[in-house]
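Look at a sample.

——
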Amino acid sequence: MNTKKKKEIGDAGQASESRLNYLAEKISRPIAWKTWWFLDLILTAGISAYWWQIGLAEERLVTLCLSLLIAASPAPLYLSMAALAWRCRSLAAKEGAHFNSAEALRKFMRIDTLAVNKNGIITMGNPYIAELVPEGISKNALLSLAASAEQEATHPIGRAIWYEAEKRALRLSRLAACHEIPHAGVEAIMNNTTVRVGTLAWLKKQKVSVSATLATKNDQLATRGKIPVFVSNGKYARGIIALQDDIIPDTISAIHRLQRLGMKVIMLTNESSRTAAAVERVTDLDGAVGGLDSLGKVRELQLLRAKNAGVAMLGDTNKEPEIFLAADMSIHLLPVQPQANRRISKRRIETAEMEEAAEKALAEAPPPVDPKTVKADLVISEGMLSLFPALKLVQKLKRIERQNLALAYGAAAVMTLLAAGVLVNINGFWLSPWQALGGFCGTALVLLCVAIMRISS
């Protein structure tokens, strides 16, 4: 059997398993409270009509209706569910996971796939230069050319290139114009020449000539997990700057722990497919898709949801909000400022101070109102490890709710039968409204006590 056929069979098996899990989840969920009340009314009307037809007295018929409405009420179950959700949110907050509502907690209970960005979640998000591959010029000339174009860069890769040039005290050219293109690179004009620093695909779209040697080296670097950045001067590529973004120390253990609890972890990144595959091999991810812009990430999330997967997107919800809107749930990771060792030369101290003053003024200014800003369902502060206790709590919550669901259905069924008069022909017993109310309170008390005690243990 060839590899393609095996992959098709594996995909079919996974899709079938996903459908079965989806059906099992649907069956184990409690009936919506509006539906339950509607069924309660229908049941009360049907039983009352039966007894009215056989001549039951009107006074007795009124007490019968009251008893049935109380006996079959869904209130005990939903009171216990509300108390459970409140307690679960409180316990999760102590572990660094803050749900913004009970509905957000319910969403998290249906999540089985976690989609993440690469930078800042899988890797540190603080890249540094690992290798310089010049063609026709020296290494310092290549770095100086790229750093000159990246002087006004806001992207971490651009800043890393500029800091390395500053550390080496390289001379930078004056910028005439500069334009940063998301998910592609930066285009600058210096000395009446266009300089581009960015991805291979973007340079090819700009009709930049790239030698076979550099193209081969790009594949080799990406396969090793490096981030290859091309530098062109005019119509010719002058070399590659390979950057390394180290994997966060706890990332691999966090991924394994989440996988053991049944959570699939998939990485979506705008970096090359080869780089994504290299990171997938190192971290044991369930999947990694590279070469994606914002629309590409939205498309991948929609494909996952089409397979009946409950998908949560983890990252910074202030960046690319359309991606988080495409997922079933949004999880915001609070940013942690890396302690980078920045060595800035004396001739750039004034510029650095101006940049710091500008950043401080920007931080103090009120943020702009963005209509697409996503209100995160869950906020965490310690990376993917913060999801582990929250996921364990949610799994315990599912087990307790299934138990309470069985108890509530059983109690409602027994009290409804007694209220309907199944024993009246045996010993003349009718369940009065006060007795039904007592059973109602007893059921609610048992469900609440069991739920709170088990979730806190």
Summary: The CA atoms of residues 183 and 270 lie 6 Å apart. DSSP finds 17 helices and 13 strands in the chain. The two ends are 50 Å apart (CA to CA).
